[in-house]
Design a protein that fits this description.
Pfam families: Aminotran_3. Its cofactor is pyridoxal 5'-phosphate. Its EC number is 2.6.1.19, 2.6.1.22. Pathway: Amino-acid degradation; 4-aminobutanoate degradation. By secondary structure, the chain is of the alpha/beta class. The protein has two domains: 150 residues, Alpha-Beta Complex (Aspartate Aminotransferase, domain 1); 258 residues, Type I PLP-dependent aspartate aminotransferase-like (Major domain) (Aspartate Aminotransferase, domain 2). It has 14 helices and 15 strands. Strand 1 and strand 2 form a beta hairpin. The longest helix has 19 residues. The model has no long low-confidence stretch (mean pLDDT 97). Bound molecules: pyridoxal-5'-phosphate. Pyridoxal-5'-phosphate binds next to helix 5.
Length: 446
């Protein structure tokens, strides 16, 4: 079990939420920050440790979001902070493509070791998840000489122009912000809760493949992007056999199979990468979010012959893989291995199953609870139906936040309650947070 925590791992409220200092900051923020950067809860944070955030008013809040799956190893890890500080005092920037440095190479070596696939792998490091996805598109197009790109329904791949086009839902990510690039296609996925009863993973894959053949053409497609567990899409876990069938189809047709592991990767799902829960081997993998304990870093890793198809200078960027972020990432990798955090994610999965696994049978407003590792979702429905209930979800999130529990929303209909806690979260905190949420579930189910 991991290290000690600088903040006691318990919820403790000393003011109402948001408290007076948060409200004061919020007024200043409204005068200076674009409304386009919306917030889930207007509680301003000061520091944190493990699974607890402490706000500017001194409230200790249970964080079941991790800033959308970033602080997987816990908030403000002291060893990561020390590694970053040490590097910041030594060298902060040279630009790897001008004069290189070892940290970048070491991160690429580690990624080659931990990403699935028994073949030579090369990486490029960039700043954000969207930038990683953009680069994967560029690399796949360059390698195949094809242009079309497919992403799954309910996918989230980012907020840049290209990745917006690959992101499924129009609101709020895309609305009013086109034109979007062409040759981007959204194809059906496997969503067991919403698919026809009994549809298997292989059948769902055949539906995806048929759509590709009839709308795009298999020989036109450069790459198929999948999130093995969809994050923003609502913790959607396709039926067994889905990804294996798609990977076979991609191999047979010269299509680059890309696993976007930006949210589910780096120990979160109870494996280094969530595609490992299937038998599919991706050609390229994108990594970001949890990789560097909160420092901006992202990567594309994959088959050497694909990654090397790009001409020198064809990919890169000023800050990509900067010395401080890579120093943080190397420490994150070390901690995950030393402290057994993949097993900790599996422990969190068991704790969630045990504590909230029966919500669908207890609360008529819950349609299904599902998840892997420290990645869970609950479908919030109109009682007794499978119809999405976004108002219900909003009420749950607001109730939780007002009581010191941060939970996330997700899903194409804004109706999936999403949990992405740190893998170091205790059973006691899971129980306490669940009790808070259940107050609202009971009310909405009555
Ligand atoms: C968050 C996310 C992205 C985008 O990452 P940013 O760092 O926000 O650009 C892309 N894909 C998935 C699956 C994500 O969860």
């Amino acid at each position: 079990m991991p290290t000690s925590f600088s903040v006691p791992q318990e919820r403790k409220l000393v003011t109402e939420l948001p408290g007076p200092k948060s409200r004061e900051l919020h007024a200043r923020r409204r005068a200076a920050v674009s409304r386009g950067a919306g917030t889930l809860a207007d509680i301003y944070m000061d520091h944190g440790s493990g699974a607890i955030l402490v706000d500017v008013d001194g409230n200790q809040i249970i964080d079941l979001g991790c800033g959308i799956g970033v602080t997987t190893i816990g908030h403000a890890n002291a060893e990561v902070a020390a590694a970053a500080a040490e590097q910041a005092n030594k060298l902060t920037h040279t630009l790897f493509t001008v004069t290189p440095y070892e940290n970048y190479v070491r991160v690429a070596e580690k990624l080659a070791e931990i990403t699935p696939g028994d073949f030579e792998k090369h990486s490029i490091l960039v700043n954000s998840g969207a930038e990683a996805v953009e680069n994967a598109v560029k690399i796949a197009r360059r390698y195949t000489g094809r242009r079309a790109i497919a992403a799954l329904d309910h996918a989230f791949h980012g907020r840049t122009n290209l990745t917006m086009a690959m992101t499924y839902r129009p609101w709020p990510e895309r609305a009013g912000m086109g034109p979007f690039p062409g040759e981007i296609f959204s194809v059906p996925t496997s969503y067991p809760f919403r698919d026809p009863e009994g549809m298997t993973g292989v059948e769902a894959a055949e539906r995806t493949i048929d759509y590709i053949r009839t709308h795009i053409g298999a020989t036109e497609l450069a790459a198929l992007f999948v999130e093995p567990i969809q994050g923003d899409g609502g913790i959607v876990i396709p039926a067994e056999g889905y990804f294996e069938t798609l990977a076979d189809f991609c191999r047979e047709n010269g299509i680059v199979f890309v696993a976007d592991e930006i949210q589910a990767g780096i120990a979160r799902s109870g494996a280094w990468y969530s595609i490992e829960h299937t038998g599919a081997i991706p050609d390229l993998v994108t990594t970001a979010k949890g990789i560097a304990g909160g420092f901006p870093l992202a990567a594309v890793t994959g088959r050497a012959e694909i990654m090397d198809a790009v001409q020198p200078g064809g990919i890169g960027g000023t800050f990509g893989g900067n010395p401080v972020s890579t120093a943080a990432a190397l420490k994150v990798f070390e901690i995950i291995e030393r402290d057994g955090l993949i097993a900790e994610a599996q422990r969190v999965e068991r704790a969630f199953q045990a504590r909230i696994g029966d919500w669908a049978s207890k609360y008529s407003v819950v349609g299904e609870v599902r998840g892997r590792g420290a990645m869970f979702g609950a479908e919030i429905v109109l009682p007794g139906t499978t119809k999405p209930n976004p108002e219900g979800l909003r009420a749950i999130i607001d109730h939780a936040a007002a009581n010191g529990v941060i939970v996330l929303d997700a899903g194409s209909w804004d109706s999936v309650l999403r949990f992405l806690p740190s893998v170091v979260i205790s059973e006691e905190l899971i129980d306490d947070a669940a009790t808070v949420i259940e107050q609202k579930l009971a009310e909405l189910s009555a």
